[in-house]
UniProtKB/TrEMBL annotation:
One Pfam family per UniProt: Peptidase_S55
Protein name (record): Peptidase S55 domain-containing protein
Domain (Peptidase S55): residue spans on this chain: 1-148
Native source organism of the sequence: Candidatus Scalindua arabica
Signal peptide location: 1-32
Domain of life per record: Bacteria
Keywords carried by this UniProt record: Signal
Amino acid sequence: MRTVKSIPFLFIFKPIVSLFILLVFFSHSAIAMETMDTDEITPGMKGYGKTVFSGSQIESFDVEILGVLKNWEARNDMILVKMTGGPLEKTGIIAGMSGSPVYVDNKLIGAVSHGWSFAKDAIAGVTPIRAMLDVLKIDSETRENTYAGNNSTWSTSLSTQDSDVVARLQSHGLIHESVLTKSSNPQQPFTLSLVPIQTPVIISGFDYRSLNSVSPLFNKLGRFSLQGTSGSSNSPTDLYDFQPGSSVAVEIIRGDLSASAIGTVTYRDDKNILAFGHPLIQIGSTDLPMSTAQVHTVLASQSGSVKMASPGEIIGRISQDRRSAIAGRIGEYTKMLPCQTEIRGSLNVKYNFEIVHNKVLTPILFQMAVESALLATEKTIGEKSVNLKLDIGIAGRKESIKIENRYFDSGPSWFPIYNTIQPITTLLNNEFQTTEIESIKLVADISETNNIASIANIRVSKRWVAPGEEVHLSIRLRPNTQDYVSIPVGIKIPDDVVRGTSVRVTVCDAIISRMMEMVSAPGHFSPASFEQLVNNLEDTESNNNIIVKIKLNKRGLTYNGEDFPSLPNSFLTIMSLSNQSGAAPLQSETVKRIPTKWLINGKKTIILFVDNKS
C-alpha cells in the first residue's frame, strides 16, 4: 500500500504569507505604472485625473482630451484637456493642481501644468509624462544652473496643428475667429496665452506689506501667488499614502517665519518623485526640502482659484527643478541655513528661522524675512536711523564675516536692508570658490530720529605749508535742526611733497569717498582672491565717519588687488607696456577718518600751497 506523507499546513502557508507581504509592500513603495505617449492620444478620449481638494484625501476628476499641440516647445508636445467634476465647474483651474496626474485607459499621460487666465471652463495643458521622466534621467554631472525668468508664455503656429484642435480651442473661446481670418500671413504664429499654473506660496508669520514688496521679486523668477495661512500641519504622515495625486510642499523657509510652494505629485517610482509638471523657478540642480501638505479649502476666484494649504512633515528633498517637472527623493534630507534677525527699537523682537541655501533664493528670502520683521515692529513712514550689524558664518573659515554700518531712511521701503542682501549675494556668487554659508545673523538698532549732519565748510590754520608740517583743520558740521558744530582735525603734509606744488584736501562723507576711490584706485574693486573680497566687504566705509583725503602728486598701481602706492616712473612705464593683465592705476593719497555720532553728508575741498623755500 502506498504511503502518503502529509505536509504541514504552516510549511505551505508561511511562504504564501511572505509573498503576500512582499506584494503589498511593493504595491505601495513602487507605485510607477504604465504610461501613454502623445502619439497614442487622440481628441475625444476620456480619462480621469487625481488631486486633493480637501485635507489629504485624493479625489478623481473627469478629463476629456481636446487634442495635442505638436512641438509646443522644442521636442515637446502639450496635451490639451477639459476637466470636470468636483469643484472644477465652479473654480476652473486651481493653483496648486500643478502636477495632478492624468490617466487615459488607466495609463499615465502626464500632469496638469498650464492654463488660460480668466477661462470660463477648466481647460488645461498637460505636460506629457515622457518629458517629465526625462528629468529623472538627467546625469548629475551635466546638470544646468539657469532659471526661467519671465519666459513663461509660449506661442505656436496654428497652421501646423490639427484643424480639430483649433476648432475645439475656438469653441471654448481660447482662439478668436477674427484673429484666424484677418491674419495677413497664415503661417504666422500667434500667441496662445497658455502659461504655467500659478504656484501657491503659503506664507506664515510675515507682515502682509512685506509680501507686497517681495511679490515682484518672486514673479521675476516664475508664476507665484503668495497666500497667508496659520502655520504648518502636524498630522502624522503615512508614506504609503503619499502617491500620485497627493499634495506636496517645497519648503523654502521654516521656523518663526515659513514659506512653502504647494503642488501635486505626478509620479512615484519607489522613492523617486515627480511633481508640478512645470518648474518652480527652473534652477536646474537644487537642494530643497520636500514635505507633505494638507489642503484646508479651495478659494474660488474669477482671477484664479487657489488651494489654501499648510506644509506637513518633511519626508525628503527636491534635487531637480527643470522645465518639465521638479524631481525629488523620499528619505534624503537637505541642510537648511539657520538665520536670526534681532530688531531693537520700539519693540525688542528676535526671529529664528531657516532658509534654503541657494544662490538665487537665499538673498531674496532673507530680505523678505528681515523686511517683515521690521514692518511688524517699526514704523514705515517718517525719519528713522538704522544701525545694521551683519554676521555671516562661512564653512571652513575660522572667523565669521562681520559687516556694520549706519543708515538713514525716511520712506516706506526700508532701503538700508539692501546693504545686508548685497554681501550675501556677493559671497554666494563669487568667482574664487564655492562658498557654503553656515549661518546669518542680523541685529538692527532703530531710532526714530534724523541724525544727519551736513559738512558746511572747512577752515585751515594756514594756506601756505611746508613738507612734513602739521596743519590744523576746523570742519564745520550742521546737524539736523541743531546749531553748527566745529570738529578740530590735525593733518600732516607728506614729507616728500614737492615744493612749489599744491595739495588738495577733501573732506567728505563715505559715499563720496567711495566714488572718488573708484576713480583714483579702480583696482580696489577687482579683488584677486576670496580673502581680498572678504576684506572689501568688511572694510566698507562707515557712514558716520568724516573722511579727510590729501591727494598727492605721486602715482602707483594696484596689481592683483595689492597696492603699490609709490613707484619710480621707469617702473610705471614698464608696467604700462607689459603684456600681462592685472595692473590698474593708483593715485596716491593719505586718508584720515574721524568717527562722529552723526551720519555725515556732503563734500568740501580746499587747496593748500607748498612753500618753495627750503
